[in-house]
Structures are given as C-alpha cells and as structure tokens.
User: What shape does this take?
Amino acid sequence: MEFLKKNFSILLISISVIITGLILGRSYLAKGKADPKINVVGMGEETFDSDLIVWNASFSRNDYDLKSAYTSLNQDLRELKSYLKKKGVDSKDIIIEAANIEKQYSYDYDEEGNLISTSFDGYSITQNVKVQSKNVNLVEKVSREVSELINTGIELNSQSPEYYYTKMADLKLKMIEKATSDARMRAEKIAENGGGSLGSMKNADMGVFQITAENSSEDYAWGGSFNTSSRRKTAHITIRLEYEVN
Assistant: This one.
C-alpha cells in the first residue's frame, strides 16, 4: 500500500499513456482502411428504326461556253426535280445546293517531264442535290431506281442514303435509365452475396454513346460511334456507379 501511495501519480500517468496509445493506434489503423465500396457497370441498349433519310446526288455538264453549260445544267435540274415529284417526293424535301464551277485544262509534257503547253478544255459545272425526308421508305426506293434518269441523258452520281433518328435526346434518357437500373441491380446482388446491404451512391460516370448497325460487328470508337449507313441501328451506353456498403 505504501508503494502505491508513493507511486500512484506515476502509475496513473503510465496507464494514461498506454490507453492513449491504444486509442491513437486504433484510430491510425482505421484511417488506413478504405471504406467498403462497390463499383459496378450497367449497360443500356436500344434497337430502333431511323426516321429520317438523307440522300445526296450530283450531276455535271461540260462546255467551252459557260452560259451553254449553265443552260444544259438547268435543263437537267428541271428534269430531275420533275422526276422526283412524279415519284412522290415532296418539293420541300428537295434541297438544291450551289453549283460548283471549275475550269478544265489539259497539259503537254516533253520526254523529260517538263511542261510544254497548257490548253483550256472548257468549263465543268457540278450541281449537288439533296433529298432530306421523313418518308424513309419512299426516298430509299427512289434512290435505288434513279438510274432511270440515264434514259433522259442525265448522268446522275447517286450516293448511298444516310439514316438518322430525330428523337435521339429522348432515346438517350431512356437508355441512361436502363443502364442505371442495371448497375444498381448488380450492386445490390454483390452486396447481398457479401452479407451486407447497399448504401448510398457515391459516384456516377457515364460512358460514351455508341450507335452501330443492328447485329453488326462494328467496333466502338473512343469518342463514340454514330452509324449513318444502316437504317436499323442499336444504341449502347454504359454507366459506372460507386456505392457504399453497409
């Protein structure tokens, strides 16, 4: 007892130091442990039909006289517009772009490749015409039958139609909702299998929006792909979510 009385204060300080050390040690170890979290990726996918078609075509006329070239070109343009209207294409869907004029030259060279002379071969005027319509079936059919114009003397350079979707904003929202729901279900399953429960969401990242042809093997692009060559397409998006685990 005498010993305890004499050394009580020292023992008290020692015990306090030990307890403080234990508390600080546990606190330090706790800081080193990451809070339990779950990271999951959800997928949103939707297949749809394009509701807008864009078809581009062009034709040209060549002549030494610019006025004559324009006269022939305008006659071809009238023939083309008349043909499209007969096929049922609405005049408001026909877009006539500015004509492009180029001077044509031919060049003569000697045996050593040196330019000897240059001669003017006339003017070439090219007219671009675009049809942009929501009547996808009609314009698609017309683009396949346009070779009929050859009989009228018009050598039309027809490009493959391009297909677009005008309700893309609504589609994206629908897909984000699907991807988020898919990711949450995955996270809930992981937490349940681990004996815990899903806590609050801490972070969310949306992947790049990708549009490819339906049932195709097209590669995704780093900045997002946007297929315009196929009428029927499939859109994809991913959502990465991070949740706390209770």
Remarks:
- Residues 3-14, 16-33 have pLDDT under 50 and may be disordered.
- The chain has three domains: 1-33, 34-49+167-245, 52-164.
